[in-house]
Amino acid sequence: MKYRLLAGVSALVTAVALSACSSGGDGDEAGGVTTVDVWLMRDSVSAAFQKEFTEGFEAAHPDIDVRIQIQEWDGIGQKITAALASNDAPDVIEAGNTQVAQFAESGGLLDLSDRKDELNGDDWLKGLAEPGSYEGRQYGIPYYAANRVVIYRKDLFEKAGVDAAAITTREQWIDATTKLNRGGTQGIYLPGQLWYALGGFIWDEGGDFATESGGRWKGALDTPEALRGMAFYARLQALGKGPKDSDEDDPPQAEVMAQGQVAQVISTPGGANVVVEKNPGLEGKLGFFPIPGKTAGTPGAVFTGGSDLVVPAAAGHPDAAVTFIKELTGDAWQKKLAVAMSYVPNRTTLASAVAGDPGASAMAVGAANGRATPNTPGWAAVEAENPVKDYMTAVLTGGDAAEEAAEASADITRAMNAGS
Q1: What letter would DSSP give residue 352?
Q2: I need a surface site. Which of 24, 47, 288, 325 has the fewest CB within 10 A?
Q3: Contact at 8 Å (CB) between 164 and 287?
Q4: 87-102 average pLDDT score
Q5: Are 408 and 390 in contact (CB under 8 A)?
Q6: Rounded CA gap, 193 and 251, in Å?
Q7: CA nearest neighbour of 248 among 288, 303, 193
Q8: CA-to-CA distance for 49 and 57, rounded, in angstroms?
Q9: What is the pTM of this model?
Q10: Which DSSP letter does residue 375 get?
Q11: What are the beta bridge partners of residue 210?
Q12: Percent share of the chain, pLDDT over 90
């Protein structure tokens, strides 16, 4: 989910909840001015960016006022579901990219397929565009993205004679991490249940968590491709002391890196801020590079977290809503948003906007090969149980990979088809 992936990013900004940012008018259609009601999520924009965009938009579109309400991620799924079923929905809603399918399935979203060309749909990041679609129709318009990169200790790399810029393949990454994993240094701190990272390795091999056929989904962790992805994860995880039975939050991996003996972690770039906050002595000693792929010409596949913008079917001002979305996802404001928030812009053609931000530029490289979890409402049930985590721990603690994968795949199949 987006809110987990961006947990580190929230340290970059302090967002102020504003119940209204309208520049004038007493309500809809006052004096010929339409008021567009918008729900944006906590920490997706700073208060300064929100103010700048609102003023800029209203100046460019004097017939539209913007009223933005900041929403909390906790419980947002239920709140959006209720809004979509009502006759009083906002005109634009920001939703986590993996949430769009479940909202589209309900019939509560406006089909925006015929607006893709004017919204630059040919260049959208795959990891945002694909989960924004459902049954061949486009409901979510890519807003911004973030994904994991490798955060590394420059001083430890130099001491070990490792050049981060020369790590362009997974095998080179293993070799470098092996050199780093000596003495009191962990080559990498990789907890056993970082399933988002596992997903990238599986996708690199041509596999997936699940596949669809004839309207039914089937768990796919037991395929040869997915098993190769798990085998690579196990090799990498062994080059450190990460716990095999927990994820990146237990203990918080940024706090572990801050202790000074970890050369690398896989995290969103915002995690580096937490590391330095916990250990100011590491200021200036952290760097970033994209997760390497199987070959030098292609970065590793990554789970793309982020948000899409949707228009409820019950929106009172759908045309004005699309105008709002077109501005916020257009070239000018996407570049400003990326710089202000260290996000990846929603289109591959805008990656240069974050060239001056080392963490964000590393994200942008990975985002070009970004993916998302299976695009179906049934995936929510899988994440609720998360047999993937149990599978990873079982393999890392000595279980037979093929047997454990078959059991986890059966659990995924059951969860994804429970409502069908």
Answers
A1: G
A2: 24
A3: yes
A4: 92
A5: yes
A6: 12
A7: 193
A8: 12
A9: 0.81
A10: S
A11: 219
A12: 78
